[in-house]
Amino acid sequence: MSHARDRELWQRARAVFDELVDLDPASRLERLSEVSRSDPRLREAVDRLLAADAGAEAVLRDYEFGTPCAATAPATNARDPLGLIGRTVAHFRVTDFLAAGGMGAVYTAEDLALTRTVALKFPLPHLPLDGVVRERFVNEARSAAALDHPNLCAVHEIGESEHGLFLAMPLYPGETLRQRLARAGALPVAEALGIARQVASGLASAHAAGIVHRDLKPGNVMLLPDGSVRVLDFGLAKIRDASLTRSHMTLGTIGYIAPEQLRGEAADARADLWAVGVMLYEMLAGTAPFGGDHELAVLHAVLHEAPARLSSRRPDVPPAVEALVRALLAKDPAERYGSASDLLADLAAAEAGAPLAFRAPVWGRA
Fold it and tell me: 215 an active-site residue?
């Protein structure tokens, strides 16, 4: 079979696979029977695809997809989910609600002791922090507070109130990378590399202290008006992991989670570098490298598929930058950059138009 015919068969098999995901078992069997009658080779290809996906499904069968608060949070005022506006929490007067995500709800508050505006983050009510989880929350928050780097969000204080533990952090002006991408689409190559370099610089500092983010995504990257970048929620993702062990809730956004995390394997600093690769691809291409109409399709793409070449979506991306992104998105962490410091060196080289130092294994090159 020619390469072109094989690729065409794969594309048709993938379309059938995506269709099967939305069907009940009886309808799936009927659809597979139709495929068998009309095109046995296509049925064989679909069966291979289903078999390849079965290993991932075994790991993910107990997971619940979607945003945690969407499934379990009680119905409350969308502009004040915890009912805190106007109240005083410790020495902070809560003035407004900012946002809610997987880690908690964030409010704007006035620090009455130091007369400054801060952001207060509270765990959501359905994330109980008790016993070991509570102790881990405090320890991780202290570790994050000890990090002192211009590209990492600082933690001013770890406090306790009638609403439970909370973190006091700087209230940064600007927008998240997610907001920038939604507003502007693909970014200039130089700007994308500059953002990635600042993120990698913060990662290098945190990784050196033994702290891995594990939930890095555009919503956790803050772009300030002066051009500087801050990584938010550093070192706190493990807390949510522990607090959700009973329900097996997945962490973060599927498209940014490294394959080894999805497979239930131990994740180290290279999982954060995978997320940097996904974000850099998205900044350059204007679209995520792993897409799909539903989360299972995205998950399958992360585990089994190679993203479209950057040059096919953005011809002005230099070959060295494309090679750098490809190395970050290697399915096997052993084939990625070994550290954020190594990545930093190559990002600087890419910005200067110099050759990269990292060489992907021969079998990992396109």
Answer: yes
